[in-house]
Amino acid sequence: MKLIIAIIQPHKLEDVLHRLDSVEIHLRTVSNVLGCGRQKGRTEIYRGRKEAGSLLKKVRLEIAVNEPFVRPALDAITLGARSGTIGDGKIFILPMEGCVRIRTGEEGEVAIG
């Protein structure tokens, strides 16, 4: 089991979600976050408006997957989020020790689905 955390541009969220759906990865958590990377928060134009400051608006996706779904998830996120410009984001893959489905008490890979 792995926990995939992706930080992407907000305007790429719909593309990424569509691609995740196409590889049958439906369980995800999405949060709005602020952050900066190599661009160090330099002013950028986002949807026709200048964004300035040291922190830029980003979207954080958290996806728990079983081993066979790791590569399809990574490919879907990468293809959906890539624009080829600085600030496209990062993907982090972490080992996940366990998972419990609260409703049924199922544990491990079965709980992820």
Map the helices and strands.
Layout: E1 2-8, H1 13-22, E2 29-35, E3 44-46, E4 49-51, E5 56-65, H2 70-81, E6 89-95, H3 109-112
Antiparallel strand pairs: 1-5, 1-6, 2-5, 3-4
Helix pairs in contact: 1-2
Would you kindly provide a written description of the structure presented here, covering whatever features stand out?
Strand 3 and strand 4 (49-51) form a beta hairpin. Helix 1 (13-22) runs antiparallel to helix 2. This protein has three helices and six strands; from the N terminus they run βαββββαβα. The chain has 113 residues and is α+β, with helices and mostly antiparallel strands. The chain has one domain (2-112): Alpha-Beta Plaits (2-Layer Sandwich). 23% of the residues lie in helices and 33% in strands. Strands 2-5-1-6 form a four-stranded antiparallel beta sheet, covered by helices on one side.
Could you give the count of β-strands?
A: 6
Q: Examine the secondary-structure arrangement and name the CATH architecture.
A: 2-Layer Sandwich
CATH topology: Alpha-Beta Plaits
Write out the strand line-up for the largest beta sheet, numbering strands in chain order. 2-5-1-6
Oligomer: single chain
- List the domain count as a whole number: 1
What composes the largest sheet?
Answer: 4 strands, antiparallel
pLDDT < 50 runs, ≥5 residues: none
Provide the structure class.
alpha+beta
Straight-line N-to-C gap = 11 Å
